[in-house]
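#dry-run=false #mode=assembly
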Amino acid sequence: MYGNPGSGYQGYPGGAAPGYGQGAATPDVQQWFNTVDKDRSGQINWQELQSALINGQGKNFSDVACKLMIGMFDRDKTGTIDINEFQQLFAYINQWLAVFKNYDRDQSGHIEEPELAQALQQMGFKFSPDFVKFLIAKSDLQNHKQMSVDQFIVLCVQIQRFTEAFRSRDSEMKGVITIGFEDFLSVAINCST
Amino acid sequence: MYGNPGSGYQGYPGGAAPGYGQGAATPDVQQWFNTVDKDRSGQINWQELQSALINGQGKNFSDVACKLMIGMFDRDKTGTIDINEFQQLFAYINQWLAVFKNYDRDQSGHIEEPELAQALQQMGFKFSPDFVKFLIAKSDLQNHKQMSVDQFIVLCVQIQRFTEAFRSRDSEMKGVITIGFEDFLSVAINCST
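#status=ok
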């Protein structure tokens, strides 16, 4: 079962992304952009973004996360974003960081199973303990224990996309859908990162 | 609708992967391995694999493709593969290359919509023309025209995984399943590359 969009989703940055951050770039965003745009092309690609983003464990954000985020704001599909698109991405990343830090109560730079369960619950999702375990294991292939902020962002964007696709087919909000093979495949491939 | 596993899937390399290539490494595989294993660690990671694989358009295979392939043969989840796992991967890649070349009749290094439609049909899938168009557009974001061999491999592995997940829920082979939200999400996230 998933939560009610009117309540459970309020704290969910993904839903707010397209709306905010519009307008002229503020000075701090301009400064960030200039730092990230190493080749001074006026455009940022995922590699430039990656070199500027460090997760709480001292590692650069994964390329999956950086490509995903560039792709979300790259409206003209050039593989790069300009200063205005970057302004929105900047706000988006900061909002995710705030969410993550809120659940990373011990400031370890990663969240573990109980923290992820709580985060998802407050986003309006009621998942089984086994499912939360599975999500952690997918992120931490070797130890099955923890998730970094970039993995958390990728997961939340994935869940958001699949939830939208599911909900649009679940008109009676039963939490169950009937779906044909080709439609199933197109949802799965379309929402994959 | 999808094809009959007993007939349509016969030419599908994905299905054969776990079985073949076992045993001691042959000299050509050993030579390839030594070339790819640049740091002489006795293990290959996805970056080393990537530097050795060039698609028909003169570009290295994507990191998604290389990570996917390493992940398929990396049984101990270390992020690397040894010579024995590499032997299987080597056979796997060669089999995909042969399939791709068979459909790339004009030897252009990429396949276009009719060629992809034919390839999928011969693998036992009956997809609508719109779905094949969608697959091409997902691979070629800017021009919506063509697909390279590494994109083809990723697509076929994705389709294979999602088909297996779908089929296991479609016990009566109706081509339609009823699926709950959490199960849907776990399939989607588990099979994503």
